[in-house]
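ugh finaly. both done.
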Amino acid sequence: MNIVGLLPCYKIMDVPAVTSLLTLQAYVYQKGDNINIIVAHNYLVDRARQNLIEAALKMDNVDYILNIDSDHVYKPELLYQLIERMEKAELQMLSAKYHVRNNIKPPRAIAMCNWTGEKYVKIVPEPGEKGIQECDVVGNGFLVIKRDFAKRLYDKYKTLFKMSLYGEDAYFCELVRKEGEKVCYDADTVVGHLSLVVN
């Protein structure tokens, strides 16, 4: 299996995030698979993600694209868990679950949204939620996308990430839904989001 990780980065990465990334690389290689990490430094996030996905689509023999943020911490086996669950559910992409940065008081929202008919609102999940959950927008902090699906989107729309009031994630997920595909996160694949604490 060949994976390409796409990492927008601005100035610095905290040590726990760097450790997670290096551990992920080692784990993938130990499994006999391959992962290449591409970093876009010092861009606005929508331009960074657009340049990264264009670079990934020029690479040969890529099976999966992992959009990943520079302020996340995770166990490396969660990548494989996400891929396995995405394939089993016959999805084109699947996000891990993580909380909104600096959101440490209950009720705790996650970096996923639903459309109310007027605006996107962050989801506050039910206690004990399990399994794959459908929503309208997922963040790109730890998101696996099938390479062929990303290519299909790019060939049709060219611009996949565009900044809006709700961020670049909302525009991307709107394109995914326009193609008739589901936007989902896996409530059992939980990664940390760095703020003053690991959130």
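ok and the 2nd:
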Amino acid sequence: MPQIPQSSHQALDTMSESPTQPGVYWFQSESLFWAVMVEVRLTNGELMVWWPPKQDEPVANLKGHWRGPLRSSTGPLNE
């Protein structure tokens, strides 16, 4: 699992609320000591994330800290 590099901590806003738009985010659940990179997608009108061992977990169900959305250096994710 990718972990947040130290230099990224200053570059991203920490959000206590769930994301409100699709994109790539760092997420640290209340039960983990590190953050993981997740892709938030809009599926059937609801923001969802793949979260092991579950697929398409509603973002609203995940409790923890969010950072992002991350900006792509090569352009939008869905080109």
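summary for the 2nd one i guess: The two ends are 25 Å apart (CA to CA).
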